[in-house]
Amino acid sequence: MNSMHSRGLLYSLIFSFGLLGCSGVEAPPELPATVPFSGSIKLDGKPMNGGLVTFVSTTDKGLNASGVVGADGKYSMMISLGKQEKSGAVPGKYKVVISRFVKPNGEPQDPKVPAEIPGRESLPAQYSVAGASKLTAEVPAAGGTADFDLKSK
Fold first, then answer.
1. Residues 101, 118: contact at Cβ < 8 Å?
2. Backbone phi, psi, residue 74, to 5°
3. Which residues are 35's β-sheet partners?
4. Which of the residues 24, 58, 128, 134 has the least number of beta carbons within 10 Å of its own beta carbon?
5. CB 106 within 8 A of CB 116
6. Which long-range contacts (CB under 8 A, 24 or more apart) does 81-84 make?
7. Between residues 105 and 98, which one has the greater pLDDT?
8. What pLDDT is stored for residue 74 in this prediction?
9. pLDDT confidence bin for 30, thresholds 50/70/90
10. Cβ distance 143 to 88 under 8 Å?
């Protein structure tokens, strides 16, 4: 292969890659800065075994956060956008929704997998329904914790 032909091929490749870079495909937006935020949940005075905590932002520009509740009642918040995930929560004010689906035998369902039918919500609507929950939390700029003490009835 002569050097003139090789150079032409190289320029064609560079031009082609340049066009690909201008194809209008945007990089996914970056997740905002977060601060560490965690806590614990008690149900009838005992650590709640399993469930999901969701912090619903009270501002238009806010980003919701969620945390899985462990067998010890503890949770740590994280945010996600598409396939991106980041530990913590964005500072701000939130409405809090706490949900705990259980299997027919009363064992908690894993909130990371699709719900099993006939599973059911085990917490009252005052905690588990976004429109009915009166629970709130504020995530300060330094991060922090929030504990919740729920009653089953």
1. no
2. -95, 150
3. 89
4. 24
5. no
6. 81/28, 81/29, 81/31, 82/28, 83/28, 84/28, 84/31
7. 98
8. 98
9. confident
10. yes
Q: What are the residues whose beta carbons fall under 8 Å from the beta carbon of 34, sequence distance 6 or more?
A: 65, 79, 86, 87, 88, 89, 90
Residue listed under structure tokens 């970056």: 30
Confidence of residue 104 (pLDDT cuts 50, 70, 90): confident
Quick one: tokens of 25? 């495909």
Rounded to two decimals, the pTM is 0.76
Taken as a whole, the chain contains a residue count of 153
DSSP 3-state assignment of 12?
helix
Separation of alpha carbons 91 and 96, rounded Å: 14
Compute the distance between CA of residue 73 and CA of residue 149 in angstroms, rounded to an integer: 10
Which neighbouring-strand residues pair with 95?
56, 136
**How confident is the model at residue 103, as a pLDDT?**
79
In single-letter form, the type of residue at position 145 comes to: T
Whole-angstrom Cα distance, residue 81 to residue 47? 30
Q: Tell me which residue has tokens 């075994």.
A: 49
- Listed in sequence order, the DSSP H helices in 68-108 are none
The domains found in the chain, sorted by start residue, are 37-150 (2.60.40)
